[in-house]
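Subject: Predicted fold for Adenosine nucleotide hydrolase NudE, 218 residues

User T.R. writes:
Posting the sequence so we have a shared reference for the thread.
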Amino acid sequence: MTDYLDRLPEPLRILGNSDDGEIQIIATDRGQSDATDSNLKTGIVFEDRWLMVVRDQVRFPDQHEGHYVRIVEKAQLNKVGGTVIVPVVDGCIVFVELYRHATRRWEWELPRGYQEPGLTPEQNAMKETQEEIGVAAVSVSEIGRVTPNTGLLSSEVVVFAAMLPSGCIEQMRGEHREAIRSVLAVPFEEVDRFIQQNVRCGFSLSAMYWTRASGIMD
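User M.O. replies:
I've generated the structure tokens; pasting them so everyone works from the same file.
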């Protein structure tokens, strides 16, 4: 197996078999290539404290060869890439409005964040809830999992329902450091319309599916 694959989480090292209709990673003895043309380099072509951009040499089911890029979040080394939280209080779902660098605009979303090393997913969900809406959850429970973009991102995030203490809506505050300017508790009966008019985030939309499927809003 190539050296760079050894650095990835175990499920992401699977080579596959083009003869079985899969996209096969072509392992070589050279490990990560050192080609001078950046378009030809394979292996980990970019890395920082948060993620790795991996370019694999691959063979497709029709046996032609090429390259495929995938983004691996380093939190996955702890098996989970992050958490999405569905805060529930007094018949409402809590959303936050924050500025996203990638889209360069304000977005309404559910609270979420990277998986912090040393924390369990449950602990991470408690931490993110406290940080993003300023209220500690009474309890959190896993209701589903999401892989947000299977064509590029390898990460899997856990969706948690976070039960907040009754009567805490007036105490909720967004974290200024995280560019959160609003926290809004949306009544169950208004959630669908609110989502249709305001929410574009794929994490949040998927998490709301799991919320419906779990019966929390029944």
